[in-house]
């Protein structure tokens, strides 16, 4: 995996490119595997890309590919083929969202229902914590249910949720630290709430 930073942008907000060759050496033994490719992602603040939030959310693959070419126009000629040879139908513009780390407790329902993963605690992928936290949710929920004789109750769900709020808050903070490194993520207090 390679990481490239373009720190030439205004306001000290870098554009970060992460790329990695994805290879399938078992193609001869396993049917239906795709061709080898290079996975890449460009990360920065929306303002760096010069698009409104509404445009970003509705951006087509074709436009996302054009935007990648525009943003990397002055990059080193050895990196340009990543973007020039992109498969436009596979290119997407995505918003990076995160909730604040203060996860308020919610009242349990009569028929216990709970949340895990991004449904409970969405966070930026820049810290590499989201999937790990979701797996931790699943494991902890299963453990709590087993400890309660397999019974799903408001108490057992509440026990899991109390535990989850604590470690999820730490993961959200860790994710923000990654965001500070990759695209100068602002403090949570300066982030605008969105309706996702």
Automatic annotation (TrEMBL):
Residue ranges of domain FAD-binding in the record: 112-173
Annotated InterPro entries: FAD-bd, FAD/NAD-bd_sf
GO MF term list: FAD binding; monooxygenase activity
Tagged with keyword Oxidoreductase: yes
Record carries keyword Flavoprotein: yes
Pfam families: FAD_binding_3
UniProtKB keywords: FAD, Flavoprotein, Monooxygenase, Oxidoreductase
Cofactors (names): FAD
Name of the protein in question: Putative cercosporin toxin biosynthesis protein
Taxonomic source organism: Botryosphaeria parva (strain UCR-NP2)
């Amino acid at each position: 995996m390679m990481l490239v930073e373009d720190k030439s942008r205004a306001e000290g907000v870098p554009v970060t490119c992460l790329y990695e060759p994805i290879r399938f050496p078992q193609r001869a033994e396993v049917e239906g595997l795709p061709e080898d490719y290079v996975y890449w992602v460009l990360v920065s603040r929306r303002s760096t890309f010069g698009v409104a939030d509404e445009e970003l959310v509705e951006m087509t693959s074709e436009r996302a590919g054009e935007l990648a070419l525009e943003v990397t126009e002055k990059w080193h000629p050895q990196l340009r083929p990543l973007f020039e040879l992109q498969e436009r139908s596979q290119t997407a513009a995505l918003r990076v969202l995160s909730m604040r780390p203060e996860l308020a407790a919610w009242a349990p329902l009569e028929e216990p229902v709970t949340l895990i993963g991004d449904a409970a605690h969405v966070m930026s992928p820049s810290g590499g914590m989201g999937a790990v936290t979701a797996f931790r949710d699943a494991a902890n929920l299963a453990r709590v249910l087993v400890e309660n004789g397999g019974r799903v109750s408001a108490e057992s769900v509440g026990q899991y949720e109390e535990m989850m709020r604590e470690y999820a808050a730490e993961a959200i903070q860790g994710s923000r630290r990654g965001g500070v490194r990759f695209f100068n993520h602002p403090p949570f207090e300066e982030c605008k709430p969105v309706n996702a």
